[in-house]
Amino acid sequence: MSKRIKVMQEIGYFSILAVLIGIVVGAIDALFGRVLIAITDFRDLHAYFLLPFLSLIGLIIVYGYQKFGKNTGKGMGLVFAVGNEEEDEIPKRMIPLVIAGTWLTHLFGGSAGREGVAVQIGAVVGHRAGRVLPYPSAGKLLLVSGMAAGFGGLFQTPIAAVFFAMEVLMVGRIESRAVLPATLAAFTASTTSHLLGLEKFSVVLKQEVVFDLSSVLRTLLIGIIFGIVGGFFAFGLKKAKSWSTARFPDLYKRIFLIGLLVSLLLMAFHFGRYSGLGTNLISESFTNGSIYSYDWFLKLALTIITLAAGFQGGEVTPLFAIGASLGFILAPLLGFPIEFAAALGYISVFASATNTFIGPAFIGAEVFGFQHLPFFFLAVIAAYAFNGNQSIYGGQKEIIWELNE
């Protein structure tokens, strides 16, 4: 059998498994996402009774991970370690632990996201599927497919999910053999979660912006601002985690004491306005609602503190909220329609903090419309260039390009 036929056969097996991965991950994403929405609604109605107990719930989360988790407490760090062949296995128990921990974090008001859960779910399923095939590359390629399925199933932005999964694992390189399986997994997961009742967030930008020199320069400028903010978030999160680990090496003390601080701050600042995902800020930003000039900063700070304490979730949806609310504030200063500037912020702060740009540009297209893709591309490129080479993912590896004189 020729080498070309072997490669085609290998990709065929990967593709079949990728579809199955997409179905499984999409179903789990739908369950996770729908319960999280219900939890958010319940918390908003009973914030006075739930927010004060965040630190106590943190103790339960730590106990669960220490009792049953093995090394799953590393979260995305473990996913990157396996993807970069520094670790051999992602335990199946990661799925129930990260889901339960995130549900509890959100129920009691922690400021956190959800994409970390979805990507970890996909990574576990993809990694386990990869061990079925007798190919050395199966583990990593199907791990990428699983990550794409997790992201695509939760946000229902499958094109963005494909590039995000490949970009974020190894900056500067895209593995060509991963493209087809990752695409199949992402689209299958997105379709599955949608059929199971998980709704996609999308906004129609009603006001058109003319693509001319003025708008291009303003887009680059606002992208730079978003890039600095996203880089600051990633840098602040890394420093906060480092400080909290050094100051409170005992996980129980860390999550309890910092959790108390988070509860007090959440109650002090508009009693729960900055709890959870930040979808309230996103909604206000795109409906010309009430956005305060400091919303983006308080959401940024409280998300950093929540995650540094050890609560579960992710960073992406809070990053969307930070960017959208900051875009709302910057819009009149740069002469942009509010919804348009909020959309640029939505994707650009995320691009900066994750040190990616192709995936975020397509998120913009899939959420706000492909007709605005040139603006989205310019904004995320500027944000990516001015993020100070920071990333919320400590395990992210970067390919260094050396240019000869």
UniProtKB/TrEMBL annotation:
Keyword Transmembrane helix carried by entry:
yes
Stored InterPro entries: Cl-channel_core (IPR014743), ClC (IPR001807), ClC-type_chloride_channel (IPR050368)
TM ranges: 12-39, 45-65, 141-166, 210-235, 255-275, 296-313, 319-336, 343-363, 369-387
Membrane-related topology note? Multi-pass membrane protein
Subcellular localization(s) per the UniProt record: Membrane
State the Gene Ontology terms under molecular function: chloride transmembrane transporter activity
Matching entries from Pfam families are given as:
Voltage_CLC
Its principal location? membrane
Which keywords, in A-to-Z order, does the entry hold?
Answer: Membrane, Transmembrane, Transmembrane helix
CC annotations in GO: membrane
The family database entries (PANTHER family) matched by this protein are listed as: CHLORIDE CHANNEL PROTEIN CLC-E, CHLORIDE TRANSPORTER
What name is this protein filed under?
H+/Cl-antiporter ClcA
Organism of this sequence: Pisciglobus halotolerans
